[in-house]
Amino acid sequence: MVYRIHFTLQDLARTRVSETPLPLLELELAVRALQDRSQPARLDAWRRQARAGMSAQARMALSLMPAVGSTPDFLSPTEAGTPEDVLEHVRATSPRQIQADLADAAEHRSLPTWARHLADDVSLFHEVCTGLGELHASLLGPLWPQLTADFMADRTVRSRHLLTGGVERLLAQANPQWMRWNPPVLEVRMINGADRDLHLEGEGIVLVPSAFCARTIVISPAPFFLTYPALHDQPLRQFTALSPEAEPASAAAVPALLGRTRAAVLTAIAEHPGCSTKELATLTATAPASASEHATVLREAGLIRTLRHRNTALHSPTPLGLALLNARP
Length: 329
Prior knowledge:
Blueprint: E1 2-6, H1 9-14, E2 16-17, H2 23-35, H3 40-51, H4 56-63, H5 83-91, H6 95-106, H7 122-140, H8 144-173, E3 179-182, E4 185-189, E5 196-199, E6 206-210, E7 217-219, E8 225-229, H9 235-242, H10 260-271, E9 275-276, H11 277-284, H12 288-300, E10 304-309, E11 312-317, H13 319-327
Parallel strand pairs: 1-5, 2-6, 6-8
Antiparallel strand pairs: 1-4, 3-4, 7-8, 9-11, 10-11
């Protein structure tokens, strides 16, 4: 069964990739992964660490966010910004909106009995908001720099698709396992048996790469969002990075960066994320072979990541690489 998203010319013109991760949308997906045991090998270490010492308030918020089913909309707004700013947005939700979102969620699953008082009990609602913040801190806090780096690396690839093949290539290649572009309709394969048509009403759609999204999820009504797995062509690398037991980059490789040319290569990549090896050679006035060699050393040291788009290598800095540059005298 499929979800058919119909695009007009105006929708195509307004379709884009989110500029930054959406903190609470990513948290909702992480909470689903926390409770879903279908892929234990890749995430068990993360689950054990996340559940250790979880507060009562965090468990309250968790009980409203099931592995399968509807989460009340006010808990996972599609807002960009820092986690702290988005959490303040949640705290400002009106009682009327809380009641409406809970009623909508209750149509699809049972809610805890105490949840019926959320709309009129300010203290109880603030407890849930506190728990939501604690969930973000425990589930995503230690991973946030890596998640942001993966988001930006994926966004670099989608930008290439958009520049070289327009919206058609962007939609066709974002997640080909679950999405098929059949102009002017984007068909999204659904595992819950849903079969429906969605008309974007000229608003377009925002694509949101996500580390914890295992497939494609459509969020409506307007504004419309579509989440898909970030770096879906490199799943083992991605989820090794999510494990708290993953080994850090070898410190022995870092001293190799103390040459002038290699430092210039790292700086160029930081200033031009997503640049190709040929572009990197131009930026640093080196031969392509030399630029490629320096990029290899930087990659092995964990200071850049390289993605392949067809026959082109695209280089972006990692948080460690940026930290090294920012720490230079």
